[in-house]
Amino acid sequence: MTIVRVALNVPIDSLFDYRLPDASPQDIGRLVRVPFGKRRMVGVIVDCVHDTQVKPQQLKAVDEVIRTIPPLPPILLKLFTFCNHYYHHPIGMIIMGCLPAKLAGVKSISKINTEQAFFMLTEAGRLVSIDTLPVRDKAQRSLLTQLQTVGTLTSKQAKAISRRASQLIALFLTRAWIEERHSVTPSIQPKLIPMPTLNAEQADAVKSIVAALHQFKTWLLHGITGSGKTEVYLQVIAAVLQQDRQVLILVPEINLTPQLEKGFRDRFPALSVICLHSKLNATERTQNWLLAQAGTANIVLGTRLSIFTPLPKLGLIIVDEEHDPSYKQQDGFRYSARDVAIFRAKQTGVPIVLGSATPSLESYHNALTGRYALLSLRTRAIKNATLPIIQLIDTRNKLLQEGLSEPLLNALEQNLAQNKQSMVFINRRGYAPILLCKSCAWMATCSRCSSRLVFHLQKQLLCCHYCGHQQPSPRACPHCGDPDLLPFGHGTQRIEAALTKHFSTARVVRVDRDNVQRKDAWAHIRQAIHEKQVDILIGTQLLAKGHDFPELSLVCILNTDASLYSTDFRAEERLFSQLMQVAGRAGRANTAGAVLIQTDLPDHPIYSALIKHDYDRYAKNLLKERQTIDFPPYAYQALLNAEAPKLDSALNFLKNALTIAPLAQSMQIYDPVPAQMSRLKGYERAHVLIQSHSRKKLQDFLSNWYTELSKIKKTKVRWTIDVDPLEF
User: What's the pLDDT at 164?
Assistant: First the structure.
């Protein structure tokens, strides 16, 4: 009797055995529908065996094997296994959580159309002269022109060109100008777009990476903002595509994908470029995932979860803005997409490029010690473009107008007079972070989180930016009844209102999560910026990453000092990275750039390093500090997190967990403490920090501990292990 071992999306780190008489090793990786308790679930076959410890009367049969969808490849299953062992998370939850939602759904899976027709230009179609077509039939001319340009079109793409697409496609098929296929294998040589001339640093970087395309190697591409990292990516990608291999590019933010996607489509018009991110609907995401799995998609551009996309012809991985903390999943399966990407590149035997103007200290340390190969781009790509001049505005003894100093307002006014674009950066959305009663000092706080509610003026709402809770803003203090409630502090909405009032004729646009929620919102704003329909841009960290605004000449940065008081040992590193990234938005083309930073701490070393644009020296100083205090990258860490309705329950669970922890002489185990955000979404949170100088010893300890923790009977406490944590 053949037994299949199935991974299911349940919080048990185990595979489940089912009867499947006609199963074979070729079925490993296939989706199956199985009974589990009183419900039906979709899982993945991970193994085929002939023996089981399950009693015969308890062994259930597989309901259905989904053969319309190709199986997950063995190499991807090995990647999931690695994640299971390294991050200590249930294998079924890892596998099923990394699949598109439609593939993991019991009902929706049967409705998936796995085949997408492509219409491919034949040799006969290539030889047809557009001039021989009727002059008045613009639709026919446009459709054939596009086919002769790119080589292939989907039905959807054809319909976007003409409403008569179906009729014209049928006509072209009859004339044998095109043929229908369900996978793209270009029958004609795609038209090549001329490559821009590279400067010496870019050329050396491309040459070095291309020379090592058939082997695993980790490259750290450290390029200042505006140094042309994207062009290096494009030319390396071109070399990979010429070998008929696929490229995976990871980006930290969804809002970065349209800009990069356009660049890739413009450079490689005949090839298939797909995106994978959460703003796609379920059908779009599933279809794109299946195209990647089939090897049809040449370039896959996506956010964190895309690292688990099946790619049979993978030839290169690029992690753009590799320093960004968004690559780390902060709940559930707590993986780092960047680190998983490095393992996948090693597993597949392909190079990986980590790109950033401000690399993480871990990556920079690995480059300094020779573990990664370092490539530096120290000059801006555009001729005569220079780094912006950074100046500090000492606000200690200055009277501010709605958080804005007089020198900053004067600089904005001068920039407006010269018809140049400006950006005001404040990494806090809403109108004010605190709503305060002056009489009794009451502050609006979230009932579900240990955080204050942010005041949103336009909708008169108090919002929690952690759990999403919203409530109407009170007309009077709920504690003492005083109607004089004071919005304290500044957010993007308040700065927008102040600048709109101060510069009444200026076109002021705000960019934060509140006004880019619509699918096409950011695309419209970005277009307006490039068409010079925006004078002053106000935004959060959404504007700090990877965007190129050629006409932007002035960047003003507000409220930076708060991070310097944080208890998080990574706070200063993140602030420095953020400020350098934001400052780099200024002066990207032929426009000279200037950056103004308001601060009460002008003598802090972070600002002197920023003024000099000296990442290397500052990073080396931070590394010395880390080495002195024995923190990463000189040590390896993990957290045992516990969540419960009451804090005592979480702390008691952790204390009990320590009693069953394996003996470890080379391990530092700290006492249980509440998390920095002690209450989140109605749960009290606490953790235990474990640290070691040996990654292997830490992993051995965690593996044994995880086994013992998994034996604990069900409690009201939820626990997870977070390896290489970024939040405490």
Answer: 87
Are the CB atoms for 111 and 282 separated by under 8 Å? no
Least confident of 39-53, 122-136, 177-191, 363-377: 177-191
- Residue 431 has φ and ψ, to the nearest 5°, of -90, -50
Which of 111, 140, 173 is a domain's end point?
A: 111
Residues 615 and 502 in one domain: yes
The verdict on residue 677 lying in a domain is yes
Distances (CA, A) of 110 to 26, 31, 290: 21, 11, 15
Q: What's the rounded Cα separation, in Å, for the pair 436 and 79? A: 50
Mean pLDDT of 246-250: 96
Domain that holds residue 664: 636-723
Question: Domain check: are 549 and 604 in the same one?
Answer: yes
- How far, in Å, CA of 232 to CA of 203, rounded? 8
Cα separation of 514 and 511, whole Å? Answer: 8
Q: Are residues 96 and 123 in the same domain?
A: no
Residue 190, pLDDT > 50, answer no
pLDDT of residue 623: 97
Inside any domain, residue 465: no
Q: What is the CATH number of the domain that holds 25?
A: 3.40.1440.60
Counting DSSP H helices and E strands in the chain, the numbers are 21, 31
Report the C-alpha gap between 471 and 34 in whole angstroms: 43
Instruction: Indicate whether 152 pLDDT > 90.
Output: no
Q: The domain spanning residue 520 has which CATH number?
A: 3.40.50.300
Banded model confidence at residue 186, pLDDT cuts 50, 70, 90: very low
| Upper half-sphere CA count for residue 329 (Cβ side, 13 Å) | 23
Q: How confident is the model at residue 184 (pLDDT cuts 50, 70, 90)?
A: very low
Q: What is the predicted pLDDT for the residue at 109?
A: 62
Same domain for 231 and 336? yes
| 672 and 569 within one domain | no
User: Which helix (DSSP H) or strand (DSSP E) does residue 379 occupy?
Assistant: none
Residues forming a β-bridge with 423: 537, 555
Boundary (domain end) residue, out of 63, 88, 111: 111
**Are residues 58 and 159 located together in one domain of the fold?**
no
Residue 170 within any structural domain of the chain: yes
* Secondary structure letter of residue 682 according to DSSP: T
How confident is the model over 75-86, as a mean pLDDT? Answer: 97
Tens of pLDDT, residues 271-320: 888 889 887 888 888 888 988 998 888 999 999 999 999 999 999 999 99
Query: 261 and 298 share a domain?
Result: yes
pLDDT tens-digit map of 255-282? 767 778 878 888 887 788 888 988 788 8
Q: Beta partners for 361? A: none
Burial of 359 (C-beta count, 10 Å sphere; 0-12/13-18/19+) = buried
Burial of 561 (0-12, 13-18, 19+ CB in 10 A): middle
Report the run of H or E that residue 120 belongs to, with start and end.
Answer: strand 118-121
Q: Residue 586: CB partners within 8 Å, gap ≥ 6?
A: 388, 423, 552, 553, 554, 555, 593, 594, 595
The tally of domains found in the chain comes to 5
711 within some domain:
yes
177 and 238 in a single domain? The answer is no
CATH of the domain at 704: 3.30.310.180
- Residue 556 region, left (φ>0) first, then alpha (ψ -120 to 50), else beta? beta
